[in-house]
Each structure stands twice: as structure tokens, then as C-alpha cells.
Amino acid sequence: MNGPTDTGDRPLARYRDYLRVLARLHLSTRLRVKVDASDVVQHAILHAHANRGQFRGGTEAEWLAWLRAILANTLAGVVREFETAARDLNRERSLEAELELSSTRLERVLATDQSSPSEGAIRGEELLRLATALGRLPDDQRRVVELHHLKGLTVAEVAAEIGRTRPAVVGLLFRGLKRLRELLAETAESAA
Fold first, then answer.
1. Which segments of 27-165 does DSSP mark as H helices, in order?
2. 109-122 per-residue burial string, b: 16 or more CB within 10 A, e: under 16
3. pLDDT tens string 105-164
């Protein structure tokens, strides 16, 4: 997986959960009523598939950045469609930066510091496993974990966002992280 010609070795379906986590984080509450994150991700994956030959990178990190850029463009299109605002390139660039920041936070949840290409590939695999595990959490737990750990909201901000009390959010975070660790341990055991 080192050359730009081997993108066929990267089945796009593997990245669906990863992109879905990012899409959920960046769809406003108002837009979530109108469009589902899975629909946005499906559109982004179709675009990536159709334009696969345009990928010029070679590493997993470059591939993920390319997919995030496609997702950012797709999300910007959804915002334009439903808010009927004029095209704002600054907002699209800001969305790309926000997606990058969320992806970085997702990587921090893994808390690994790898520097070699093989370790980077392992981190990419772990990132995909984490995204899949997040998708398996109950919705309320997944939402608070994503908002707090991936979007960087405080517990009070999460409580206001989801309409729950702070103690309820703390409980959901505790149970969500505990279950997330269990799911990651299960997938690590099954992979071994």
C-alpha cells in the first residue's frame, strides 16, 4: 500500500464507519432532521469511487485525508442544499479543518505514538476498528462520547446539546467508554 496506483487495495466500505463518525459530528442538529449521516457518507463514498484515479498519495494517512476532503465537500453541498446559502469557500475550508481536527481527536482516543510506516498502518487499522466500535454503542452513549471526546465539547455543552443533565451525561460517558473498551478488546481478540 505504498504507491498511488494501489488504491484498489483499499476497499471503500472499510472506511464507512470512520466517515460516518466524522459526518455525525459535523451535521448540525437542524440538518440531522433532514438528512442522515449514512446518506452523506454513501454519497462521499460514491464520489470517492468515481474519482479514485485522482488520488495522488501513497500512504494510509494521505488516503484518509483524501477521503476527509471528499466528505467535507459532500457536507458543504448538503449545507448549501438545505440552507440555500451562496457558496462560501471559507466555510468549506473551515469544514475541512474541523474534520481534520475531529480525526485527530479520534486518533488521540487510541493514544498511540507510532512513527514508522508499518506502525502508521497499524494505527490506521485501529482507527477503523475504533470507528466501527463507536457505531456499535447505544445511540445515547455514542453521541456523548463523540461530542465530548471527538468534537471537544465540555460536559455542560454536551448536556445542553442533547437535553440531558450533567450527571446523566457523565453516566453516559462512563458507560459508553467502558463499553467501547470492551468492544475494542473483543475485536482485538477476534483478530488475534
1. 29-32, 37-50, 60-83, 89-110, 117-136, 139-145, 155-162
2. beeeeeeeeeeebe
3. 666 655 544 444 455 555 667 778 888 888 999 999 999 998 998 888 899 999 999 999
- 126 and 58 within one domain: yes
Instruction: Write out the residue range of the structural domain in which residue 161 sits.
Output: 138-192
Of 104, 120, 136, the one marking the end of a domain is 136
- Residues 6 or more apart whose CB falls under 8 angstroms from that of 172 comprise 140, 141, 144, 164
pTM exceeding the 0.90 threshold for the entire prediction: no
Tally of domains in the chain: 2
Question: Of 98 and 6, which is predicted with more confidence?
Answer: 98
Residues 8 and 43 in one domain: yes
CB-based contact 177:152 (threshold 8 Å): no
Find out whether 32 and 105 touch, Cβ atoms under 8 Å: no
Q: Using alpha carbons, select from 74, 75, 76, 191 the residue that is nearest to residue 132.
A: 191
CATH code for the domain in which residue 165 is found: 1.10.10.10
